[in-house]
Structure formats: C-alpha cells, structure tokens
Amino acid sequence: MSEENAHDTVIDLMRQAHVAMLTHVDATGSLVSHPMATQDVDYDGTLRFIARRSSDKVQDLLDHPAVNVSYAGSGSWLSVAGTAKIVNDEAKLAELWDTFTDAWLEGGPEDPENVLIEVEPGTAEYWSAPGGSKVTQLVNLVRTRLSGERAEGENEVVDL
C-alpha cells in the first residue's frame, strides 16, 4: 500500500470510529485511559476532544503531554501516538459543540471551564481484518481454520 493510501486509511478510521480511548500518564505515574468522543480530525491527523479544564485528565496532560489514542471499529484497530495540548478556543468549541457534547458537559462552548484537547499525532499503526462485517470476518476465520492458512489483513505504521 502506498504511503498516501495508508495515511488516508488512518484518517478514515479515525473519522469512522467516533469514540476513542485516550491514554495518558496520571499524577502518580500510572497509565490511565478515558473514552472520549472525537470531535474533529484534520487531514494531517490532528485530533480534537472537548473536556473540562478542572478535570484530572486535563491537569495530567499539562504535566505529561505524551498520549496514545486508540480506536476499534468493525474489523479495524488503530493506535495513534502523539502529543496533547490544551487549547482555549471558544470559536472552535462553538463549531464543534453538538447535542452529544451538551449531554456530557455543562455550560456550552462559552463556558471557560470547557477546553479542547488537541492531539498532534506522531505515528499511527492500524490493523484491518479481511472483510469488514462480523459475519465476513467469521467466515474468513472458519475458512482459515479449515485450510490451515493464516488470515490475511493489513497492518501498517504511518508517520503523520
């Protein structure tokens, strides 16, 4: 697969799987993960999430900005290593705010307690099983089990 196609595959996977697991280092030095709704994905792979400024995760990211963002979809998995920063941008918050965000966070985009977590990606690795639907994957699994052949799929590491 060409580098451009692999890059496009990574961006598509991020955009299709709306919920990510954001993993970072907390104040005790432990790795912790939080489910986060992906609000925006730029073509360069920059990700945006909305969070409360006073949350532990935002405070932890200010001290330890290295993160991993992972996604799992139907037959696809993606791991993005990057650097997070906290961004105060009311206009961008207003652009990204929706009813889903409103259900989880108080105050709306004009509330100074709401901030963006912006993740600048370094590298991404994805795995994709043949097929796509669970039924197709199951059929392929049975076929490989009966034939003794290994399952085919894609695995690429992409610099973003």
UniProtKB/TrEMBL annotation:
<feature type="domain" description="General stress protein FMN-binding split barrel">
    <location>
        <begin position="7"/>
        <end position="150"/>
    </location>
</feature>
<protein>
    <submittedName>
        <fullName>Pyridoxamine 5'-phosphate oxidase</fullName>
    </submittedName>
</protein>
<dbReference type="Pfam" id="PF16242">
    <property type="entry name" value="Pyrid_ox_like"/>
</dbReference>
<dbReference type="InterPro" id="IPR012349">
    <property type="entry name" value="Split_barrel_FMN-bd"/>
</dbReference>
<dbReference type="InterPro" id="IPR052917">
    <property type="entry name" value="Stress-Dev_Protein"/>
</dbReference>
<dbReference type="InterPro" id="IPR038725">
    <property type="entry name" value="YdaG_split_barrel_FMN-bd"/>
</dbReference>
